[in-house]
Design brief:
Keywords: NADP, Oxidoreductase. Helices cover 54% and strands 13% of the residues. It is of the alpha/beta class. The chain has a 7-stranded parallel β-sheet with strand order 3-2-1-4-5-6-7, with helices on both faces. The chain starts with 5 loop residues before the first strand and ends in a 7-residue tail after the last helix. 44% of the residues are buried. The structure holds NADP nicotinamide-adenine-dinucleotide phosphate.
Length: 271
């Protein structure tokens, strides 16, 4: 197990971020400091209390990742004052969670949070990690970075690409850079997605019977993610069957691709 001193996770008030925070606290106890951020005060305080009950020292930051100055000041304070050495830019939104109805709104809002917010989470730490000669920078992208969804897929492909480049650039400085690409994980985001597009498709009729095959729990997701981060896996794609499926679908001839995408209902339907 890696000797983490401090882990900063954005989007820790629910879902994947919450599960990761709790796993770090459960496995490292009083040996780990956690800096957790989100916007929902009650949910974030509940996550903090759970982590504290495992012995972890926790600081919370309640702000929007689009508030660049506040975000960057928080990151710098956590890295300098608490020796944070792992930063997970996990906060994210989709068309479904934001309930956007036009391409313009959805493009701007998703890129502000998923791309600019994620980059601004990790960049303040780079000069300090370089001086230390160690550190780990992580982004939660998505298997959607491999296929459709205009704004969401593009925003996740953008951060995946950026972190792949950072991995090469920062490797000589002893800094590890990793990208997480989950398929469907059972969180508030998945609830929002499945209430919308997926339920209107052919797959929807199968969902009740194959839920466990389609959805990974957030606890399972955090086990897979933290194991991958410990082994410095460049891109942690899971579950494997969904990864192989999207990789296969992306390589099909166009006509077959269109058919397979329509089955999954991944096309946005804005006017
Ligand atoms: N669930 C999936 O199927 C799935 C699949 C692939 C990738 N992902 C990615 O996994 C990450 C976590 O999502 P999740 O599934 O765990 O969904 P979730 O339960 O909705 O959690 C999203 C987290 O991001 C935070 N957040 C959203 N917008 C924010 C903003 N503007 N400023 C600050 N925090 C913000 C939320 O905080 P508040 O609620 O406190 O605002 C929450 O803690 C996202 O990047 C998502 O794109 C999810």
């Amino acid at each position: 197990m890696k000797d983490y001193k401090g882990v900063l996770i954005t989007g820790a008030s629910s879902g994947i971020g919450e599960a990761m925070a709790i796993q770090y606290a459960r496995t490292h106890g009083d040996k780990v400091f956690l800096a957790l951020t989100g916007r929902n005060v009650i949910r974030l305080q509940n996550v903090r209390d759970t982590c504290v009950s495992y012995g972890a020292k926790v600081e919370i930051g309640i702000f929007d990742v689009c508030e660049t100055e506040t975000l960057q000041k928080f990151v710098l304070r956590m890295v300098n004052d608490y020796d944070v050495d792992v930063i997970v830019a996990n906060a994210g939104v989709s068309e479904a969670t934001l309930k956007r109805t036009t391409y313009e709104e959805s493009w701007k809002d998703l890129f502000d949070v998923n791309v600019t917010g994620a980059m601004n989470t990790v960049t303040p730490a780079i000069p300090i990690f370089k001086k230390r000669g160690r550190g780990q920078l992580v982004v939660t992208a998505s298997l959607a970075s491999f296929y459709l969804y205009t704004a969401y897929g593009a925003s996740k492909a953008a951060v995946k690409r950026a972190f792949e480049a950072l991995r090469v650039e920062l490797e000589p400085h002893g800094i590890e850079v990793n990208c997480i690409c989950p398929g469907l994980v059972d969180t508030r985001m998945a609830d929002a997605i499945m209430d919308g597009a997926v339920k209107q498709t052919t797959l929807a009729s199968l969902v009740p019977t194959v839920t466990s095959y389609v959805l990974t729990t957030s606890a399972q997701a955090s086990e897979i993610i933290i194991d991958g981060l410990e082994r410095d896996v460049e891109c942690i794609c899971f579950p494997r069957h969904q990864y192989y499926l999207v990789a296969l679908m992306s390589s099909l001839p166009e006509r077959l691709q269109k058919l397979s995408w329509s089955l999954f209902g991944v096309n946005e339907k804005f006017e």
